[in-house]
Amino acid sequence: MKYTQSISVVVPIYNDQEVIAELHRRLRPVLEAITDRYELILVDDGSRDHSWEEMLQVRRSNEHVRAVRLSRNFGQQSAIAAGLSLTSNDLIVLMDSDLQDRPEDIPTLIDALLADPQAMMAIAQWEERKDSRMKLAVSRLFQRVSNTITEIHTVPRLGIFRVMKKSVVEELRNFPEKTATTVSLLYYIGSRYVAVPLKRDARFAGKSGYNLSKMLALTFARIFSFSMFPIRMVTYMGAFLCIGSMVAALALVIYKLVGNVVAGWTSMMVLMLFLFGLNFAFLGILGEYIGRIFLETKQRPKFMIGEIV
């Protein structure tokens, strides 16, 4: 069955030269079978291999492909934002390039979206993921932390793979934030979504660009962009320590009056080091918020497009 809506597929690319040809080989028949109006937007996020040349080769074989190269590496979330900024079709598909997201599942997501008149997104909910234990553990931790201390609440095991209506992307353009991730903003908008159970394959080739530090960076980006919990925690801990110090001071006065003072330089030094460490932690949390304010006030672009073919 062909859909009456036009479809855009946005795929961020980073050092995926081995995957691009196969990605296009599997995507093209799926899209041609479901619509007469589609575009495939491949966004090269400053790859250091031959991804751009592979993208141009795909473009030469298919006029529906738009090859986009950013001026440098801005990160996956910025590459997604760049691709979404170029879309104008009725439905927008967002997926990874490594073929863990299966192109053949696109019609399933579209059907789920169109079946619910109030839904604005249909998002893959992974029943099975062929990822490393560390990546799975960090993903679960990210979801739990996000649901607990931020304004964004999602069901478990959601991925980037999704289909969105055009109005969602248009609403996203009203958020000029630079430090918040694009996917987090899609949830923050509050658009109703349906979770679609799907299986996630292993990578077709290469290795994931998401190491532990990048995954933690995404976690911190969501926390400090959508939660006041860390800075409130500082306030609560400061109040607790203040009350505790007053109680300790009263106890010392009582011990002094009864003549039962025990010298304790070691305990004093431990207490001082603890308080100094806590103070630096507080400064670090404040620095995260101030640093984001600094970056937002500069109003630098989230991405810069170097070339479009």
Summarize the model shown:
The chain contains ten helices and eight strands.
Describe this structure in words.
- The structure is a single chain.
- By secondary structure, the protein is an alpha/beta fold.
- The protein contains ten helices and eight strands.
- An eight-stranded mixed sheet has the order 7-5-6-4-1-2-3-8, sandwiched between helices.
- Helix 1 links the parallel strand 1 and strand 2.
Strands, helices and their partners?
Elements: E1 7-13, H1 20-34, E2 38-44, H2 51-61, E3 65-70, H3 76-85, E4 91-94, H4 106-115, E5 121-129, H5 133-149, E6 158-165, H6 166-172, H7 182-188, E7 193-200, H8 212-226, H9 229-257, H10 265-298, E8 305-308
Parallel strand pairs: 1-2, 1-4, 2-3, 5-7
Antiparallel strand pairs: 3-8, 4-6, 5-6
Helix pairs in contact: 5-8
Keyword list:
single chain; 309 residues; alpha/beta; 8 strands; 50% helix; 17% strand
Average pLDDT, all residues: 85
> How far is the N terminus from the C terminus?
30 Å
- β-strand amount: 15-25%
Task: Give the helix/strand class.
Answer: alpha/beta
Using only C-alpha atoms, the radius of gyration works out to 25 Å
Biggest sheet layout: 8 strands, mixed
Q: Give the SSE order as H and E letters.
A: EHEHEHEHEHEHHEHHHE
